[in-house]
Amino acid sequence: MTGAGATAAGAAVCAGAAVWLGPGRDRGLRRARLMFGPADDPVPVWRRPVSVVRGRLGREWLCLVAAVGIAVLGESVLPLVAGALAVPLVGRRLRARERRLAGLRRGAGAVALCGAVAGELRAGRQPGHALYAAVSGSGALGRAEAAVLAAARFGGDVPAALRLASGEPGAAGLAGMAACWQVAVAGGAGLAAGLERLEGALRAEHDQREDLRAQLTTARSTAVVLAVMPLAGLVLGTGLGAEPLRVLLHTPAGVGCLLAAGVLEAAGLIWAGRIVRKGEGR
């Protein structure tokens, strides 16, 4: 190292020490945390770009990121075309899965809501106040929560609001709650007892559905493993020096095999998905 370089390095070290020990240390630390995240950030540094893509653009855009990597390795534009075509298809599947999971959560919330309202009634609260206390902040009613809260608090038509909420996917149990409420108000029947019986029936149905989903997980996992096996074969061939990407992307026979494999792979995944969805529907 030259004398000028050593002098510059020493000056930089001294300046850094002055900043570190000076009155602006806390401000510098806060700025560093804002820029680079806290020290106990649960997301590793190497995963932050992936988290940004998933959070801002959606997880389906990871298909295009993977396609760019394969295109660079294989020196071909075919993976880019395939990745661009996969983005809307994968996005649609992800949205459908999110709606299905939201429906399951909403169904579980309806079961918990029946039990919570029954508990509030057993504690001596009036029906409207019991429903308002059980619904507030629970998120079990989705977009109809405001209407149900208003009806419960200001003496509105609670059964109509519950029926409106039951139109959300997975919240069909709220229609039974609306029927119990209407019968209790019109005929004087015990609302708490009716809601407890309804909760038992809905919980049994929910548990049966969850047990069926757990049993179908094996079939879903098998389909995923079979879908990943060709990728494992490509990795193994690359490790052995066979250059499978060059054969598949730069030869007519390889491109034909790749197209046929893609069609068969998509058909197998669609078929397996339909079987699982039919089983869940039953």
From TrEMBL:
It comes from the Bacteria. Its main location: membrane. Residues 117-236 form the Type II secretion system protein GspF domain. It is a multi-pass membrane protein. InterPro entries: T2SS_GspF_dom (IPR018076). Pfam families: T2SSF. The chain crosses the membrane at residues 64-90, 223-241, 253-272. It is found in: Cell membrane. Keywords: Cell membrane, Membrane, Transmembrane, Transmembrane helix. PANTHER family: CONSERVED TRANSMEMBRANE PROTEIN-RELATED (PTHR35007:SF4), INTEGRAL MEMBRANE PROTEIN-RELATED (PTHR35007). This is Type II secretion system F family protein. The lineage of its organism: Bacteria, Bacillati, Actinomycetota, Actinomycetes, Kitasatosporales.
